[in-house]
Specification:
- With about 350 residues, the chain is of the alpha+beta class.
- It folds into two domains: about 270 residues, no CATH class; about 55 residues, Wnt (Wingless and Int-1), C-terminal domain (Endo-n-acetylneuraminidase fold, 2-Layer Sandwich).
- Helices cover about 35% and strands about 20% of the residues.
- The protein contains nine helices and eleven strands.
- The chain has a three-stranded mixed sheet with strand order 1-3-2, with no helix packed on it.
- A hairpin with a 3-residue loop joins strand 10 and strand 11.
- Helix 3 crosses helix 5.
- The chain is globular and about 65 Å long.
- It starts with a helix and ends with a strand.
- One of its GO terms (cellular component) is extracellular space.
- Keywords: Developmental protein, Disulfide bond, Extracellular matrix, Glycoprotein, Lipoprotein, Secreted, Signal, Wnt signaling pathway.
- It is found in: Secreted, Extracellular space, Extracellular matrix.
- Belongs to the Wnt family.
- One of its GO terms (biological process) is neuron differentiation.
Length: about 350
């Protein structure tokens, strides 16, 4: 019996290791800014890449600085979006050796996969626009007709190129034979596609006015993506309403279907997860929970950052903090403002 348990433990560890390979590339967020990606041997210095991504690196060297930037953006954007939640994306700091919250198929891993897929395509699309990549330029001019007085111009974000190259890189680990269980592979591919779908739907009409004294008699318009923070908030909404799924036979093959609503298929627009998450109240490394002790909370908030919810009913400690801010500002004709710096003391709270 003990032998069987030992074998099961080893197999579970191996499976988790394989599952997590897909987003190990987020370790690129720790890449030194001084690393020049101009020779194929530089790919060996990048942490977190699987063999197929290493091949993409060697054949697309000019793209790698943009992908490194994307990894940094994922980390920054995720932490910002979840700063008011018990789970606050701190696990990403551990890349490429993640905790269980991202190794298992939780709703947290669903969000990170979706955000990662959206971010890498967003960053590449924007890099095309500003001329950072020799392999692409501005996006195509749309075929739709604009209102009178408006014309197509400017430089549209090249979303098609971003989606093509972004998915080629971020999905590469999940298409390997040793990509973990079929259920996890399907889940991660689905959530990554949701992220790209949200990115694509964020493409919005942007215009710039021309005319005498700002009359806006003529407008030049182009299609541009929303900022990553807005895309992350859209995905956060999907995270909060994510659907738990199971992997079961449907017809001639196994598919992911809603656990409690298996009379309908999984919707293309919803995030899905396989494993329930811990409550993240107490530190538990086995479950990937960092706990909320010493996290800052908001005493007057009714939301998830309230001291009651953030501290899980354990209570909180007050402390005084000194804030430096601009004050006594004066406007000088014609064109500038001068301010003094003032200090004030505010009361803040951290969870026990």
């Amino acid at each position: 019996m003990k032998i069987h348990f030992f074998v099961w433990t080893i197999l579970t560890f191996i499976l988790h290791t394989r599952i997590c390979q897909s987003i190990k590339w987020l370790a690129l967020s720790k890449t030194s800014a001084s690393l020049a990606m101009n020779q194929t041997q530089h790919c060996k210095q990048l942490d977190g890449l699987v063999s197929s991504q290493m091949q993409l690196c060697r054949s697309n060297l000019e793209l790698m600085q943009t992908i490194i930037q994307a990894a940094k953006e994922v980390k920054k954007t995720c932490i910002k979006a979840f700063s008011d939640m018990r789970w606050n994306c701190s696990s990403i700091e551990l890349a490429p050796n993640f905790n269980q919250d991202l190794e298992r198929g939780t709703r947290e891993s669903a969000f990170v996969y979706a955000l990662s897929a959206a971010t890498i395509s967003h960053t590449i699309a924007r890099a095309c626009t500003v001329g950072d990549l020799p392999g692409c330029s501005c996006g195509p001019i749309p075929g739709e007709t604009l209102d009178q007085g408006s014309r197509w111009g400017g430089c549209a974000d090249n979303v098609n190129y971003g989606l093509m190259m972004g998915s080629k890189f971020s999905d590469a680990p999940m298409k390997m034979k040793k990509a973990g269980s079929q259920a996890n592979k399907l889940m991660h591919l689905h959530n990554s596609e949701v992220g790209r779908q949200v990115l694509k739907s964020s493409l919005d009409l942007k215009c710039k006015c021309h005319g005498v004294s700002g009359s806006c008699s003529i407008k030049t318009c182009w299609k541009g993506l929303l900022e990553l923070r807005e895309i992350a908030l859209d995905l956060k909404t999907k995270y909060l309403s994510a659907t738990k799924v199971v992997h079961r036979p449907m017809g001639t093959r196994k598919q992911l279907v809603p656990k409690d609503l298996d009379i309908r298929p999984v919707r293309e627009s919803e995030l899905i997860y396989l494993q329930s998450s811990p409550d993240y109240c107490l530190k538990n490394e086995k479950l990937g929970s960092h706990g909320t002790q010493d996290r800052q909370c908001n005493k007057t908030s009714p939301g998830s950052d309230s001291c009651d919810l953030m501290c899980c009913g354990r209570g909180y400690n007050p402390y005084m903090d000194t804030v430096v801010e601009r004050c006594h500002c004066k406007y000088h004709w014609c064109c500038y403002v001068t301010c003094k710096k003032c200090e004030r003391t505010v009361e803040r709270y951290v969870c026990k």
